[in-house]
Write a structure and sequence with these properties.
Layout (H helix, E strand, L loop, with lengths): L1 E6 L4 H10 L5 E8 L6 E2 H4 L10 E4 L2 H7 L2 E4 L5 H11 L3 E4 L9 H8 L6 H6 L1 E2 L2 H10 L2 E3 L3 H15 L8 E7 L14 H4 L4 E2 L7 H13 L5 E7 L6 E8 L6 H11 L6 E3 L17 E8 L4 E8 L3 H16 L15
Parallel strand pairs: 1-2, 1-5, 2-4, 5-6, 6-8, 7-8, 9-11, 13-14
Antiparallel strand pairs: 3-4, 9-12, 10-11, 12-15, 14-15
Helix pairs in contact: 1-12, 7-12, 8-10
Bound molecules: NADP nicotinamide-adenine-dinucleotide phosphate.
The site of NADP nicotinamide-adenine-dinucleotide phosphate has 30 residues, from α1 and α12.
């Protein structure tokens, strides 16, 4: 049994992580922290749905106390907050999974360009493993620092990887069009996220400038072994959770839908959390909400020599906390599905 600490326990990522870990037979939550401004509160008072399930308190972060009380740390914090904390926890000998973008980039200059701050531990970027098990399982197994991927990048990279890896896709014309539920912006989002702005509305935002774009390009370039640029447009839809990504991939050679689906099935044949839908069936958000699954379907538009791929995830689970538990399982040598086998729910 490992002792787990969560920093950022009062956010959406933290809440979902607590919920998942409560059903994990080999992990026990022993320490919780957040920005509590001096207050101490039972987590079951902050999230009444946890009453009777967990009885520990949440307080402001004290790095030494947290490191003493836990073997394994999850940082479900905004970027820049993790930046300084990760080296401190690693120094105290702990394994860390960071939810933020602070350790996702290979190149500190890309981080500085898109996040507007200088990276203070660039040496750790070489060591941090990008936490997408479908691509980096062997590296994650040996890692002490895993940078959990962003939610949009998870849905995009998983949908592009099989055909890109086989060199079947034009690398200069990839288009990713994603729709997300509002929880993707965290529990305390800014202007433009209140009920009246979201309900019965549907809007694009951060067109050609979302911070997840360089993360996708980094990983797709690594896969293709050449520079890949993509057009990415995120949208907000009036759902609490879930992401649906539509990908438009121009094919370098003619291909039929059956052939494309076979490539997806082969690429993900041993993956416990990827489901490839059969021909003429397309993924829906409601079928993955509450689960760690990514569902993928595709159809070749032979007239346009283009494959259209649909990829769906629950942003809070496969896009955040579930993927983090999957990574913890790999890092600790547990069964990869432990704590993640619940059937879907729409909370
Ligand atoms: N939401 C998603 O779908 C999603 C998906 C993938 C990745 N992520 C990433 O996961 C991270 C957390 O996201 P979230 O959606 O859970 O955000 P959130 O709901 O806004 O929660 C952020 C958490 O961090 C805490 N926090 C903020 N500043 C802090 C500080 N200086 N010291 C200690 N705790 C501090 C907050 O505490 P208080 O509540 O007390 O302020 C809260 O517990 C972010 O980096 C996000 O980009 C989120």
């Amino acid at each position: 049994m490992i002792k787990v600490g969560i920093v950022g326990a009062t956010g959406y990522g933290g809440e979902e992580l607590i919920r998942l870990l409560l059903s994990h037979p080999q992990a026990k939550i022993t320490a919780l922290a957040a920005k509590m401004d001096g207050k101490v509160a039972k987590i079951s008072n902050i999230f009444p749905g946890l009453q009777g399930k967990i009885d520990i308190t949440c307080s402001d972060l004290n790095v030494e106390e947290m490191a003493e009380g836990a073997d394994f740390l999850f940082l479900a914090l905004p970027h820049q907050v993790s930046l300084k904390l990760v080296p401190q926890f690693l120094k105290s000998g702990k394994k860390v999974i960071d939810f933020s973008a602070d350790y996702r980039f290979d190149d500190s200059e890309v981080y500085q360009k898109w996040y507007g701050v200088r990276h203070t531990s660039p040496e750790l970027l070489k060591e941090a493993v990008y936490g997408l098990p479908e691509l980096y399982r062997d590296e994650i197994r040996k890692a002490r620092l895993v940078a959990n991927p962003g939610c949009y990048p998870t849905s995009v990279i998983l949908g592009v990887a099989p055909l890109l890896f086989r060199g079947l896709v034009d690398t200069e014309s990839i288009i990713a069009d994603s729709k997300s539920g509002v929880s993707g912006a965290g529990r305390w989002p800014g202007e433009g996220f209140n009920f009246c702005e979201i309900e019965e509305n549907f809007k694009a935002y951060k067109i050609a400038g979302h911070r997840h774009q360089p993360e996708m390009e980094q990983e797709l370039s690594n896969l293709a072994k050449k520079e890949v640029r993509i057009s990415f447009t995120p949208h907000l839809v009036p759902m609490k959770r879930g992401i649906l990504t539509t990908l438009y991939l121009d094919l370098k050679e003619e291909m039929r839908t059956d052939g494309a689906l076979k490539d997806f099935q082969d690429f993900y044949k041993d993956e416990p959390f990827i489901k490839i839908l059969e021909s003429d069936k397309f993924p829906e958000v409601k079928n993955v909400c509450g689960t760690n699954f990514c569902h993928i379907g595709c159809k070749v538009d032979e007239r346009m020599k283009r494959v259209i791929v649909i990829s769906v995830i629950d942003n809070l689970i496969k896009g955040a906390s579930g993927q983090a538990v999957q990574n913890m399982n790999i890092m600790c040598g547990f069964n990869e599905k432990e704590g993640l086998e619940q059937v879907g729910i729409i909370p």
